[in-house]
């Protein structure tokens, strides 16, 4: 609450008038985005956030709307892995992490370092829970926020389609795989009848 006393006068001696009391709240803390593979990105390499190597996925940068204290905000952070393959289909696992501020000149950046590499072919979700605070005395956030990325997906054939050619004697077939094929692969083993 901001209150302006009616005793405030202009240089001409006129008393202030109109609304003299204002009520507002400071902006709530927001989790703006995540940077999966933070250490890899800092080294200048690119990462594919939909097909990330599990070891690279261990470091996750989290950007907030203003500075955070790792020891306070980490109590309200959660990292989960949802696997969608094999016998563990649909399982959710909470991943352990440590939290730090990797760049003292960017106190709104939090680094979450997973204790272990997450599973392959998993949706990784970083959540700031309702009630989170940037520091002990700060106002709590009113709702949770989540961002996700995906670890290395299984290698699979995505599609097969007839190719196009101008030759009457050729019938090409196009194969699309989920990952680039190793250049040492013997493609003569692929048969089309």
Can you walk through the features of this model?
The protein has 193 residues and is mostly beta strands. The chain is built from 2 helices and 12 strands. The strands form 4 sheets. It has a 4-stranded antiparallel beta sheet. The longest helix has 5 residues. It is elongated. The model has no long low-confidence stretch (mean pLDDT 89).
What integer value in Å does the Rg equal?
27 Å
Q: What order do the helices and strands follow?
A: EEEHEHEEEEEEEE
Q: Main beta sheet: strand number and arrangement?
A: 4 strands, antiparallel
Strand content: 25-35%
**Roughly what is the average pLDDT, rounded to an integer?**
89
Helix/strand class: mainly beta
Number of helices: 2
Distance between the termini: 79 Å
List keywords for this structure.
mainly beta, 4-stranded antiparallel sheet, 2 helices, single chain, 193 residues
Summarize the structure.
The protein contains two helices and twelve strands, in the order E-E-E-H-E-H-E-E-E-E-E-E-E-E. It is mainly β and 193 residues long. The longest helix has 5 residues, at 38-42.
Give the secondary structure arrangement, pairings included.
Blueprint: E1 2-3, E2 21-22, E3 31-36, H1 38-42, E4 59-64, H2 70-73, E5 77-83, E6 92-95, E7 97-100, E8 109-114, E9 122-128, E10 145-150, E11 157-162, E12 173-177
Antiparallel strand pairs: 1-2, 3-4, 4-8, 5-6, 5-9, 7-8, 9-10, 11-12
